[in-house]
Design a protein that fits this description.
The protein is mainly beta. The protein is built from 2 helices and 12 strands. The strands form 2 sheets. Strands 3, 4, 5, 6, 7, 8, 9, 10 and 11 form a 9-stranded mixed β-sheet that branches. The radius of gyration is 17 Å and the shape is globular. The N terminus is likely disordered.
Length: about 220
């Protein structure tokens, strides 16, 4: 069973996917605004700590050729949750900020950031919610867990992340990042919150999502 937190977020992601039949961007923007392009529905409860800038070149090791000519923006998100870290996220200029909400409450607030490109979305949710255990092929079933398909490992500083798609055939193009806990199991809450994606149905979007994850900077 999905947790209430993950279920609400997944419902939001795939509700957006079902209602937004927009074409994928085919070009690279050359004009970068100093503030993010926010949709009219965006709710912001405090000023965004935003360092919007053009990053070029930004070339990782063994970069897929499809990423070499992209230009990148950067945004800093200050965590309102004591147990979750702030972070910087880099994303291609072909993506936009669909929604950002940050509600501070003496360390017990919440924040959510959703980036989108066409039908593809990436969301990072920061709350004090409970984690679920992430299970992969070959793992034994257990309570309070989510089933995933084969994963891709990502080393993030001294952390280990796994990116995998959901086992359920009803969730098409849905992915989540899980993090290795101190107990050695993988859980849905990462150092910067829950990270989910929807609409990752083509190799270009998956490559870009992988690279966005690799370039996240966790702020201690």
């Amino acid at each position: 069973m999905l947790s209430g937190l993950a279920l609400v977020l997944l419902g939001t992601l795939f509700g957006v996917l079902a209602s937004r039949f927009l074409p994928m961007s085919s070009g690279v923007s050359t004009v970068i605004p100093k503030t993010p392009s926010l949709s009219p529905s965006t709710i912001i409860d405090e000023p965004i700590t935003n360092d919007q800038e053009l990053i070029t070149p930004l070339v990782p090791t063994a970069t897929p050729s499809s990423l070499l000519n992209l230009k990148w923006n950067m945004m800093t998100v200050k965590s309102p949750v004591t147990s979750v870290d702030s972070y910087k996220i880099y994303y291609p200029t072909t993506w936009s900020i669909q929604q950002y909400k940050n509600t501070p409450a003496d360390g017990n607030g919440s924040s959510s950031l959703t980036l989108s490109k066409g039908l593809t979305t990436i969301s990072i949710l920061q709350t004090n919610g409970n984690s679920l255990t992430c299970l992969y092929p070959g793992d034994s079933d257990q309570a309070n867990s989510l089933q995933f398909k084969e994963y891709v490992g990502i080393n993030k500083d001294d952390l280990t992340w796994r990116l995998a798609s959901f086992q359920s055939p009803e969730i098409i193009g849905g992915y989540q990042v899980c993090e290795m806990s101190t107990a050695g199991t993988f859980i849905t809450s990462t150092k910067i919150g829950e990270i989910l994606a929807g609409g990752l149905t083509d190799s270009q979007s998956i490559d870009e999502f992988n690279y966005i994850l690799e370039k996240i900077v966790i702020l201690k």
